Amino acid sequence: MEASVRARPSLIPQARPERVALAYSCVYFFCVLAAYYAARPVRDQLIAAVGATQLPWFYGATFVATLVLTPTFAVVVARWPRRVAVPAVYGFFIACLLAFVPLFANEGLLSPRALGTVFFVWISVFNLFVVSVFWVVMSDIWTQEQSRRLFPLIAVAGTAGAVCGPLLTRELVDVIGVAPLLAVSAALLAVAVWCVIRLGQWSEREGSRRGSAREGRPVGGGMFEGVKQVFATPFVRNMALLLLLADGIGTVNYALVVDYSGSAFANAVDRTRFAANVDLAANLLTVLLQVLVTRWLLPRGGPSAMLALWAACVMGALIFVAVSNDPYAPVVAGFPAVAIAVIVGRGFAYGLAEPARHSLFAQVSRNERYKGQNMVDTAVWRFGDLIIALGMNGLRGVGVGVTGFAGLAAVSAAAAGLVGWRAARRAAARPDPPGR
Which of 105, 218, 339, 344 is most buried by a 10 A CB count? Predict the structure, then answer.
């Protein structure tokens, strides 16, 4: 399988049905990430106002919310077909986005601290579920061979949305204010729902798995099956460990840049603009990597090479922070070293690691895709956020600063690269499961 994929001469779909589905997939991911990144700076400026030491409370509440919603999602996909379950999930988040508009528009309806807490938790859950469900759908309709060829192209479209989202926020926040940005996100997510419906119709009519008796049908099984798979299924367990180690990088970077933003900027508009600029820079790096590296390396080198390269580059950025005399001093384009670490971390994570990691799920059963993958991408991820944020607060108490945290995150990057490389090599040797 590895050799045949590497030898493939073209990464561009040759058949018209595949090109049509690829176009729907690209628009789908564009809208999902544009919707999230248009609203994300609103969350980030709220956290910058209270400081990173409060992150454990936010992460704890988010973890509890994912523990409730992940089994609920498992029940939905167990009982209803994909064409019903996935639009219903997105419809729920659209309704929530619109419900937040009056809360932000009328400050007296909810105290700033309460609104900040509720919105942080909700937007964090929103991010996890809308992106996780997207990749679940992708790994469900595309085969392993198709995923290696097409996921880099789909990821580029998503990153284009992730670039447009912060641009929308940066340009519109001074003109229309914060609240209307949420309605913009809701409209983008509605377009994503339309793409989901069309992709479902295509998959059942012309998709590579249209002959399978399970294609598009309810997954079945119990609501806590995803939890069981994290502990009992070697592949899902390895994916959970990889995500926890990667989270050690992202959460540390995020906390350090939140502290910088809170100390450097005095008002919500400036903090929101800074957060949007960081997102924009990270997403531009992501698209460069996806165009120049991922679409070439994933089909030929496979996920193992992608994950190893990601870990090495992120580790280098963190070492740069650790050895800097002043991690808060401007270095490149006005960004300090801590912001550069965030930009490199996010850029390489979404440019290299995420397409590679999600391509591995095209190789497993539908039950592992819908329940194990969703569990890893939601509850396990937020569990990691909570534990790491609590650990950072404890280490601050004994004098650990920016240099120490960057060094610990670099160690986490090295471990993540090793775990990811080994897990990808083992997954490549697995045969396709019956019934998929």
Answer: 339
**Alpha helices for 324-380 (secondary structure H):** 337-348, 354-360, 366-367, 374-375
Largest CA-CA distance found in the chain, in angstroms, rounded: 63
Neighbours of 205 (CB within 10 A): 9
Torsion of CA 211, 217, 222, 223, to 10 degrees: 130
Query: How much is the pTM?
Result: 0.70
Q: Three-class SS of residue 215? A: coil
C-alpha closest to that of 77 among 375, 371, 358: 371
- Side chain identity, residue 385: D
**What is the chain's length?**
436
Q: Which two tokens stand for residue 297?
A: 């390396």
- Amino acid symbol at 345: G
Distance CA 224, CA 342 (A): 34
Q: In angstroms, rounded to a whole number, what is the distance separating the alpha carbons of residues 210 and 221?
A: 22
The helix (run of H) or strand (run of E) holding residue 100 is: helix 82-105
Which residues, other chains included, contact 250 with Cβ-Cβ below 8 Å and sequence gap of 6+? Answer: 345, 346, 349
SS (H, E, C) 7-46: CCCCCCCCCHHHHHHHHHHHHHHHHHHHHHHHHHHHHHHH
H-helix or E-strand spanning residue 400: none
Q: What is the DSSP letter of 315?
A: H
What contacts 269, CB < 8 A, 6 or more positions away? 173, 174
Strand, helix or coil for residue 245? helix
In terms of phi and psi (left: phi > 0; alpha: psi -120 to 50; beta: otherwise), the region of 228 is alpha
- Region 332-341 average pLDDT: 89
Q: If you search the block for the tokens 């401007």, which residue do you land on?
A: 330
Q: What are phi and psi for residue 332, nearest 5 degrees?
A: -130, 125
- Interval 339-395: pLDDT, tens: 999 999 999 998 888 888 877 877 767 777 677 777 787 778 778 878 888 888 889
List the beta bridge partners of residue 336.
330
Query: Could you give the CA distance from residue 344 to residue 124 in angstroms, rounded to a whole number?
Result: 21
Cα distance between residue 352 and residue 346, in whole Å = 10
Q: Which of 116, 125, 141, 121 is nearest to 46 (CA)?
A: 116
Structure-token match 């949420």, residue found: 182
> Which residues neighbour 383 within 8 Å (Cβ) at sequence distance 6 or greater?
63, 244
